[in-house]
Amino acid sequence: QVQLVESGGGLVQAGGSLRLSCAASGRTFSSYAMGWFRQAPGKEREFVAAISGSGNSTYYVDSVKGRFTISRENAKNTVNLQMNSLKAEDTAVYYCAGELSRPIRAGQLRVDNCGSWGQGTQVTVSS
Prior knowledge:
Layout: E1 3-7, E2 10-13, E3 18-25, E4 34-39, E5 46-51, E6 58-60, E7 68-73, E8 78-83, E9 92-98, E10 116-117, E11 121-126
Parallel strand pairs: 2-11
Antiparallel strand pairs: 1-3, 3-8, 4-5, 4-9, 5-6, 7-8, 9-10, 9-11
């Protein structure tokens, strides 16, 4: 069974940076697209970014384009999210997720088709 564990969340001032990491265990995930999602208080969980198994293709929600960068290190079974120029509206619990039982294109990753989720890490941006 795959386990995903996020780390790197915290409190940061607006304009600052954080780097989230997701470590996968239980299965080599280099063949599968992975994504980051977030859920703010009182809001639905939303897609943030995704990356293909090879790392050659990335996708972002419009609100984070140019500020966030998703990357992966398949040799270490990790996926990262570098977040720069953070805004108060980026405050949320961030989740690493993927579907590791069947291939899904990175551009098609959604909340409702990811079967494996981490426990989440809190990101709080103070204005």
